[in-house]
Amino acid sequence: MRKRSLTLLSDGTLFRRENTLYFENERGRKPLAVEGIYDLYIYGHVTITSQALHYLAQKGIAVHFFNHYGHYDGSFYPRESLNSGELVIRQAEHYLDREKRLKLAKLFVTGSALNMKKNLKRWKVADGFSEMLKELFEELEGAEKITEVMNVEARIREAYYSRWDGHLPEGFKIVKRTRRPPGNEMNALISFLNSRLYATIVSELYNTQLVPTVSYLHEPGERRFSLALDLSEIFKPIVADRLATRLVTKRTLSKEHFREELNGVLLTKEGMKKVLSEYEKELTKSVKHPELKRNVTKKRLIRLEAYKLIKHLVGVKEYEPLVAWF
Amino acid sequence: MSSEEYPLTDLLITGTEINYLFICPTKLWYFAKGITMEQESDWVDLGRFLHEQRYANEEKEVLVGSIKIDFIRRGDVIEVHEVKLGKSMEKAHEMQALYYLYYLKKLGIKAKAILHYPKLNETKEVTLDGREGEIEKAIKEVERIKSLPKPPNPVKSKKCLKCAYYELCWV
Ligand code: SF4
User: Fold this and answer.
1) Which of A82, A87, A308 sits opposite B171 (nearest CB)?
2) Which pTM was predicted?
3) Is the CA virtual torsion A296, A298, A301, A303 positive or negative?
4) Is residue B131 a contact partner of residue B96, using CB atoms and an 8 Å limit?
5) Model confidence over A4-40: pLDDT tens digits?
6) Which chain A residues have any C-beta within 8 angstroms of a chain B C-beta?
7) Contact between residue B95 and residue B21 where contact means Cβ atoms under 8 Å apart
8) Helices (H), A37-184
9) Residue B23 Cα: closest atom of ligand 1
């Protein structure tokens, strides 16, 4: 049985009775087949009993919590069952050694930028981006501090957003990327997707021996699982940005799927439902992997990226960030 | 070769490590460093299932020092039983069993090993009889591979297709 992600969007209670997990709300009580759950995403107001949490921990299921806006709040990351002292040491070594850390940080930025370029080409709004990237990559190469790397990254992103807007329909322009709270519909959508993607990556890392708190581009401790932030640089353009674009250009989402609150714009429950179901569909789509010569789901690509990182850290093969071929 | 070469206290290798040596040195290295993949393999689940079903009444998962034996039967001579799925890794299974026998002999316990292939309805008996040299060579080789700073280069073979490390090795 292939395990699947489970999302709880409605309010209710999660509890365990004997060896079954139940979700109960005013519509009734539903048993959840725990053996088939890969990870759990909770958006509603859900009360969880400690027995339910114990059970989830025992089964190695990570639980991710999101707030009212659909922003990531935190994860219940069961006590790690996968440990490799060797890998912990290598991860720390690559953080402490300035050259090694810079190298990885730059690779994340490079991969991210190349995926942005790929998107702009798809959307036919790439004018001048390649040339600009060339210059910025030169600057990136010369960077000697993480802050400089971050700075280049920010400029690449800015150039990307301004072009991306050219492809988006009226009413769904990004204009200025604002985060918390999101200032308009597109910003709300991107933030929502990025949050979910981040949690997906946290889950993938949970299933490897990588320590999620030791990172290279982002400062460890910036957020709890800063390595997931590093990896999300690679996947944001090809998962979140592409999906956000498709949802609004194909009019799957319209203005009525958003609402304005005192603190900004957010997706309605109906909007979230649509986005999440498309997100799940997107991640289970397969692409043929050129090296593995197998079909892999887009979600699996995240795991593979973690494996590539492991190989880099143990010195088997230098990390080459995923650049979408699809 | 003398079997005095390895005092028991030096035998920190597990049966799985000996087994993996004969499957693939790359796999052995990753496994020995705690970079494991097996938790997701259906193959392992099946093994667990068989273990729980058919051999429900045996004295199972017997720990002796660094080795863990599937199950043991006590008679005139101790019988070490290992349950395996297919025969494609027969050599690896045999060496693992031999290692257990070697280990037990160091403890002064005379034993024989029985490999079970429940899916094929077959069993195979393994005895140490003068094969100490073979197992000592294997122990040395496991130690050598574990001490390498990075895993031996993977070599693509038919085994890779069913291996839980496939993606890690070939991505
Ligand atoms: S995939 Fe092949 S090379 Fe890699 S560990 Fe498995 S058997 Fe060895």
Assistant:
1) A308
2) 0.92
3) negative
4) no
5) 999 999 999 999 998 899 999 999 999 999 989 999 9
6) 60, 81-87, 207, 209, 289, 291-292, 300, 303-304, 307-308, 310-311, 314-316
7) yes
8) 50-58, 85-96, 98-122, 129-142, 146-164
9) 7
